[in-house]
Amino acid sequence: MKRVSLSSVFRGLIFFLAISPVASGVSANGAKTSVCDMALRDLGTVQNIMEVAYAPREWKEKHFGWDMDKEIAEARAQVQANPNLGVRGYQEIFRRFFTSTRDYHVSVSFVSTEHAQLPITVKSSKGRYFIANVDREALPLEKFPFQEGDEIVEFNGAPVQKEIDAIKAEMLVDNESKLDLNNEQTDQALAALFFNSRKREHGHVPSGVAHLKIQPKNGSAVQAVELDWAYQQELIRETDDLPAPPSAPRFIDSANTAEILPSKDRLPILNRQMVVPFSDLNRHRAKGKPGGKPVEENPHGLGSRKSFVPDLDGKKIWQTEEENPFYAYIVQTEDGQHIGFLRLANYVPEDADKAVKAFEEIIQEFESKADAVVVDQINNPGGSILYLYALASMLSDKPLQTPTHRMAITEKEVQSAVAMSRILSVPKLAKIVLGKSLQGYPVNNETIAALKEYFDFVAAQWNQQKYLTDPHYMYGIKTITPSANVRLTKPILFLTNELDFSGGDFMPAILQDNQRVTTLGTKTAGAGGYVIEQTYTNRLGIAGFRTTGSIAERVKVEQRATSTPTSRDPIENLGVQPDVEYQITPHDIQNGYPGYKAAIQQALQRIMHR
After folding, report:
1. 327: Cβ–Cβ under 8 A, 6 or more apart, which residues?
2. SS3 223
3. DSSP character string of 324-385
4. Which of 16, 133, 496, 513 is deepest in the core (most CB within 10 A)?
5. Is 117 exposed, middle or buried (0-12, 13-18, 19+ CB in 10 A)?
6. CA–CA separation, 35 vs 242, rounded Å?
């Protein structure tokens, strides 16, 4: 009998193609194209990609009247009205177009070296601005005798609010009349975070000296102080005339690629991410000595292992080691209660399998020793869908129904779906390709069946000429099955805030919709889908941009107890409203968050005595 190699199974399934989507229209004599003409052509390319790949378009039109064609037309008019604007000027027009979507996932990045940093972090509350964190490596106490909680009352000769409004206008909204169409609390918190951290894609990058006036929280006199921006200049030269783009597509030699078994890590369709583009914002670590103890990340940044949430009252009877990817502990209170605390910083693990194993061990401790658990998920920028599902499977002893997604699909997704469906049709082959887990989510017969059903659905939708699919469960996972290893049955108080994005929206939505947790804090940002990275060949310094490839619909409140909801609300723009609302106050920021801690303790007692 003739033996068939694994490579022959995949022959003809996997093709690698790199193509420049920019139309040339330029003679082959090497003539140069003006920046203005190039910008107009690139806007056409961007419009085409957005029409094909931006899933929330209909929702944006319905929710606040966003008209993509109108926004593109306005961008083109701005380009035509300024034919000598230059590369930077045209980049600003592109950035404003992407900002018009009111979508925290959508952003553009530029090929640029320009950025600036101040060694302090700012936090806002009720229109006031406070120092939240100081990089003491850059600003030792003798040089900067201010501390967390001191109030910044003036910046560069004007109220701090003026600078915050300028940041908002550049990176978050196009004009003040549209401020109420975003999550205002999220916009405010982001602007405060960007106060000290500026990049080209976010707008103007300052340099030189920043002039501040600071009111110490001890009540002493306001003091003037100067801080130098740590500025990196632009090292990429701007030109007014650009060489003509290639007149024909460029193909990568695909010889022998069909002989290679595809790696799951190289298949984007298996690695959908729900994470915001600025997920690394303010996550500073001091360099330290090689092999030495790592310095804790800024607790006010996004995705930091330990946040600013104050430790619970009581004696710590158990705590994770610093090397553990999760900060967690159990306290024994004065009245003998045992309360667990778990920080969910992000859903972007360095090693998913290792992180899931560590999470299992924590949940085991909680289940055996804790009476209730506080989960801190504030300032969470999101991450991997499947990793999120893996963690959620350990937080409940009952199946958790998941949101559905309407997905923007193209031939590229369909090609991957067809290839994956064929792989999944052969169980032995599926296990070779998928391994024992996908981003920590266990691969078993149930998972394989769900994945195959999902990929078949994608192909079927395309054949029905549905380029934005009907609502469907991501990866066919209708419910997250409780973990076979460990399950938490204790009451959970889940902390959220306005800087929870994407996966940080989805986890509380899933747990709240399934009535598994009580949420406390403020509404999450409302970034409701997975993200697709888009690139195209250009000479305007556009490194790429992001589109939201799906729009998720959560379980409707009236339908939470059923398995077949008929009507759902999107997460996009709406976010997740907390069951118990609490907003950080100026008194919290200046005094170690006593009001916040008290609200957490009160909510804990209520859920424990139901």
Report:
1. 305, 306, 320, 342, 343, 345
2. strand
3. SSS-EEEEE-TTS-EEEEEE---B--SSHHHHHHHHHHHHHHHHHH-SEEEEE-TT--EEEH
4. 496
5. middle
6. 7
Could you read off the pLDDT of 216-259 as tens digits, one per residue? 999 999 999 999 999 999 887 655 444 444 333 322 233 333 33
Q: What is the mean pLDDT of the chain?
A: 86
135 is written with which tokens?
Answer: 């990089």
AA letter at 513: D
Query: What angle do the packed helices 427-434 and 445-463 form, to 10 degrees?
Result: 100
User: Would the pLDDT of 482 be above 90?
Assistant: yes
The closest of 181, 240, 152 to 62, measured between CA atoms, is 181
Evaluate whether 106 touches 98 at the Cβ level (below 8 Å): yes
Which position has the token pair 């500025």?
Answer: 231
* DSSP codes joined into one string, 257-293: GGGSPPPGGG-GGG--EEE-TTTTTT-------TTSP
DSSP 176: G
Task: Pull the structure tokens for residue 142.
Answer: 């003798």
CA gap 239, 252 in Å, rounded: 29
**What average pLDDT does this structure show over 518-537?**
96
Q: Using CA atoms, how far apart are residues 311 and 520, in angstroms rounded to an integer? A: 16
Strands 404-407 and 542-548: unpaired
